[in-house]
């Protein structure tokens, strides 16, 4: 008996390009399921950033544009405004890593939210620069060892990690901001619901919507996939709580 049908928004015969145990594939599948459920496939333009997220167009069967590093929100803003001005408004979302969104791209990310751009942003937080070798990133936890912080992140030298969902929630133009995880079944279901809520906010024209996803990086964390998920559940959620920080539809 068939218990699951592949989303039609996932390309046929896609080759898995992520490291073993990486959660990117799972999150992309959730995105595809939501695109199908909301009947968005033919009207969607996705913006992929540089980094591991750049492989988005290998999996999603929608129009995709690759942005320069850190500029995904700016590119998405341009697409959304241009298509609306031409009376052919598209559904536009970005798929970014935490380094892209919250470090080199923080200006574009934050000001897009402050302007209330009617786009949706999905940010994968794996606490390092995954594609380029596991360097310290804006979300690297205090004490976390990376290739560029061999003695661990410390306050005096590196400062504190950024909490993206909380910062975005403070912006008046933000309609929805949440942090989710995909480390167990319950949280996978909740993550999909959050992505769907964020997409619906854009459909309703409510403003900027944001979902931060706590994700594993077994290769650079030097842990097994199961231990990586355990680390998220027992350690990272203490730093980055799983929570909806803003939802104007419930106000």
Outline the fold blueprint:
Layout: H1 24-37, E1 44-48, H2 56-59, E2 63-66, H3 72-85, E3 91-97, H4 98-104, H5 106-115, E4 120-125, H6 155-158, H7 164-169, E5 174-181, H8 185-203, E6 208-214, H9 218-221, H10 225-239, E7 243-247
Parallel strand pairs: 1-2, 1-3, 3-4, 4-6, 5-6
Antiparallel strand pairs: 5-7
Helix pairs in contact: 1-8, 4-5
| Architecture (CATH level 2) name | 3-Layer(aba) Sandwich
The largest β sheet comes out as:
7 strands, mixed
Question: What is the CATH class designation?
Answer: Alpha Beta
What shape does the CA trace take? globular
Helix count equals: 10
Total DSSP E strands = 7
As laid out across the biggest beta sheet, the strand order is: 2-1-3-4-6-5-7
Secondary structure: helix percent: 25-40%
What is the domain tally?
1
Helix and strand composition category: alpha/beta
Average per-residue pLDDT, rounded, comes to 95
Rg calculated over all Cα atoms: 17 Å
Intertermini distance = 43 Å
Helix/strand order: HEHEHEHHEHHEHEHHE
Strand content: 15-25%
The poorly predicted ranges are none
CATH topology: Rossmann fold
Instruction: Write out the CATH superfamily name.
Output: Thiamin diphosphate (ThDP)-binding fold, Pyr/PP domains
Question: How would you describe what is shown here?
Answer:
This protein is α/β, with parallel strands linked by helices and 251 residues long. It contains 10 helices and 7 strands. The protein has a single domain, classed as Rossmann fold, CATH 3.40.50. A 7-stranded mixed sheet has the order 2-1-3-4-6-5-7, sandwiched between helices. The chain is globular, with a radius of gyration of 17 Å. The chain starts with 23 loop residues before the first helix and ends with a strand. The model has no long low-confidence stretch (mean pLDDT 95).
């Amino acid at each position: 008996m068939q218990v699951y049908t592949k989303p039609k928004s996932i390309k046929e015969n896609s080759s898995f390009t992520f490291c073993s145990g990486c959660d990117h594939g799972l999150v992309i599948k959730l995105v595809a399921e939501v695109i199908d459920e909301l009947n968005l496939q033919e009207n969607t333009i996705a913006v992929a950033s540089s980094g591991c997220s750049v492989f988005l167009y290998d999996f999603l069967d929608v129009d995709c544009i690759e942005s320069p590093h850190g500029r995904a929100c700016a590119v998405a803003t341009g697409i959304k405004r241009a298509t609306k001005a031409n009376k052919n408004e598209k559904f536009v979302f970005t798929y970014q890593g935490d380094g892209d969104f919250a470090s080199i791209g923080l200006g574009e990310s934050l000001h897009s939210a402050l302007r209330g751009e009617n786009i949706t942003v999905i940010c994968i937080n794996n606490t390092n620069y995954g594609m380029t070798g596991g360097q310290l990133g804006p979300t690297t936890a205090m004490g976390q060892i990376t290739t560029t912080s061999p003695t661990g992140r410390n306050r005096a030298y590196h400062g504190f990690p950024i909490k993206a969902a909380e910062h975005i929630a403070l912006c008046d133009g933000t309609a929805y901001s949440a942090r989710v995880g995909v480390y167990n079944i319950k949280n996978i279901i909740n993550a999909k619901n959050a992505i769907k809520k964020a997409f619906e906010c854009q459909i309703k024209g409510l403003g900027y919507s944001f979902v931060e996803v706590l994700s594993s990086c077994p290769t650079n964390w030097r842990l097994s996939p199961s231990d990586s998920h355990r680390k998220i559940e027992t350690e990272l959620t203490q730093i980055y709580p799983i929570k909806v920080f803003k939802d104007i539809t419930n106000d």
